[in-house]
């Protein structure tokens, strides 16, 4: 269940019917001020932080912006970190992912223009998890730094996969090998299903936990949040592997964490 994304389509009518051309006063949208002003001007009657119907927008105009979402979740524009959380959260509502011929591209998408940006790892970062109770059911509920709220279910599962920090220029990472003990590092590398032998991995390659959020966008689960998740769940041993079992919405979800 996505608490932020369940507004009815009627609440989006004004933004869907937004002008087919950019207001002349804004010029190109490929700068922060113009884009922010445009999003706010077309927000219409939407209450709070709602995700617009990006799948209904098909702009032909494509531009590029010097904006990078770092592997540690920070947003950087023209070499400087964006520190205005409200602006980052606003832009995160129009994040869009496209895949073609094995290539993944990310955009900030409006009804009139797609603005290509760079993403080093995952476009979203989860920094909180808790247990919520609803209709005699308990759910694991995750929150991103930009305000998405998502519950663990079949459509929003957790996966573990390798990430090579050589791909990015980030000096900081929410997951860092130095933050783990030697045994923890072995577990961390060997958790991904697609990793056959941890010794074949480069020293800069890490295994990270990710969760599907919306519109094909994944979120990295931050280190402290994942540690909390291991405390919430149940750890067991099976065939030499450590199994983390999580309960959410009446269903069980297991992550295999081999110790060899």
Name the descriptors.
260 residues, alpha+beta, duf1285 like fold, duf1285 protein fold, 5 helices, 15 strands, globular
What can you see in these coordinates?
The protein has 260 residues and is α+β, with helices and mostly antiparallel strands. 15% of the residues lie in helices and 37% in strands. The protein has 2 domains: 9-119, duf1285 like fold (Roll), CATH 3.10.540; 124-258, duf1285 protein fold. It has helices at 13-16, 32-41, 85-92, 182-189, 223-232, and strands at residues 62-69, 75-77, 80-81, 95-100, 103-109, 114-119, 124-134, 137-144, 149-151, 158-164, 205-214, 217-221, 234-238, 241-248, 251-258. Mean pLDDT is 76; it is low at 2-27, 44-48 and 177-203.
Topology at a glance:
Blueprint: H1 13-16, H2 32-41, E1 62-69, E2 75-77, E3 80-81, H3 85-92, E4 95-100, E5 103-109, E6 114-119, E7 124-134, E8 137-144, E9 149-151, E10 158-164, H4 182-189, E11 205-214, E12 217-221, H5 223-232, E13 234-238, E14 241-248, E15 251-258
């Amino acid at each position: 269940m996505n608490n932020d994304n369940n507004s009815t389509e009627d609440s989006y009518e004004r933004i869907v019917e937004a002008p087919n051309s950019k207001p002349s006063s804004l010029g190109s949208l490929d700068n922060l001020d113009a884009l922010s002003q445009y999003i706010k001007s077309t927000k219409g009657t939407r209450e709070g932080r709602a995700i617009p119907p990006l799948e209904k927008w098909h702009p032909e105009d494509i531009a590029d912006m010097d904006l990078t979402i770092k592997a540690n979740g920070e947003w950087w524009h023209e070499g400087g970190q964006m520190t205005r959380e409200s602006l980052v959260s606003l832009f995160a509502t129009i994040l869009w992912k496209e895949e073609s011929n094995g290539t993944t591209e990310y955009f900030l998408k409006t009804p009139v223009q797609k603005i290509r940006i760079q993403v080093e790892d995952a476009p979203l970062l989860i920094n909180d998890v808790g247990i919520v109770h609803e209709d005699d059911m308990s759910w694991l509920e995750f929150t991103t730094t930009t305000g998405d709220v998502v519950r663990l279910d079949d459509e929003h599962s957790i996966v573990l996969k390798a990430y090579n920090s050589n791909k990015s220029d980030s000096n900081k990472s929410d997951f860092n090998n130095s933050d783990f003990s030697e045994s923890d590092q072995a577990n961390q590398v060997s958790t991904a299903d697609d990793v056959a032998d941890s010794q074949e991995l480069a020293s800069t390659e890490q295994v990270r936990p990710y969760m599907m959020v919306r519109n094909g966008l994944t979120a990295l689960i931050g280190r402290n949040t994942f540690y909390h998740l291991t405390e919430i769940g149940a750890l067991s041993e099976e065939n030499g592997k450590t199994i983390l079992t999580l309960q959410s919405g009446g269903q069980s979800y297991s992550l295999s964490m081999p110790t060899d």
